[in-house]
Amino acid sequence: MNAPSSAPGSQPLVEAKGLTRVFGHGANAVRAVDDVSFTLGRQEVVTIVGESGSGKSTLARLVLRLLEPTGGTLHLAGRDVTALKGRELRSYWRDVQAVFQDPFSSFNQFFTVRRLLGRSLRLATGTGGDQGETMMTQALEHVGLTGADVLDKWPHQLSGGQRQRVMIARALMMQPRILVADEATSMLDASLRANILNVLGDLRRDHDMTILFITHDIGQACYVSDRVLVMCQGELVEHGPTDQVIFDPQHEYTRRLLADVPRLHENILD
């Protein structure tokens, strides 16, 4: 399938061509991601949707360079980043940050929020002291939290929604160009889920951020994204503007996903 593209005439921020990841060898080989191509435009929200085992999270980890591709290439702003190592890869990780599914497991349980954010900031940028304190407070405010309320709390003292917003704040401090949100709302209840989706929308608008959103819930894709990529058994089977995919699906798999949300407009966040 040809690469789904960003806005016509625009230079994509991210361009993946033929990304492939195979696990195992010979008869036991599994093509978790199979020749997938796509683009991400600047300040665009693109959702990858599919059931468990579809390859969407493996694809996210290829974009994050947490997995090496078996084949294909990945470009950021025209630069091939497929084989980056060492310092160059660490620099890439500042540009491309992630928020994962379980906000509790993302914490070191022996760190307060202040220590967690401060350590991440020092390791990535060398910033500490009063400047670091200001950056932490500002990042928390951007995601709707007050530093005085959460900086000295331990993970178990925060709600699931608060923990996830702290993880987004940690990513935001790195001033990334791209945020990969991999099932970032799946462990939250409906009201907290809506809150996190709104935070992501604010980041796109206020920080010129590109967001790659990974979910099994095509209803959330409708709520948050400009374009939708549908994955099934490692392949990209359908893509297009959100309204086109939702209201005029071309692939049987997409129609099956939509059938699981019979009253889509009323159940986007349920």
TrEMBL record:
Q: Does the keyword rRNA processing apply?
A: no
Q: Name one GO molecular function term.
A: ATP hydrolysis activity
Q: Which InterPro entries match?
A: AAA+_ATPase, ABC_transporter-like_ATP-bd, ABC_transporter-like_CS, P-loop_NTPase
Q: Is Transit peptide a UniProt keyword of this protein?
A: no
- Which keywords does this Swiss-Prot/TrEMBL entry list? ATP-binding, Nucleotide-binding
Indicate the segments forming the ABC transporter domain, all copies: 14-258
* Listed PANTHER family: ABC-TYPE DIPEPTIDE/OLIGOPEPTIDE TRANSPORT SYSTEM, ATPASE COMPONENT, ABC-TYPE DIPEPTIDE_OLIGOPEPTIDE TRANSPORT SYSTEM, ATPASE COMPONENT
The name of this protein is Peptide/nickel transport system ATP-binding protein
Q: Name the lineage.
A: Bacteria, Bacillati, Actinomycetota, Actinomycetes, Propionibacteriales
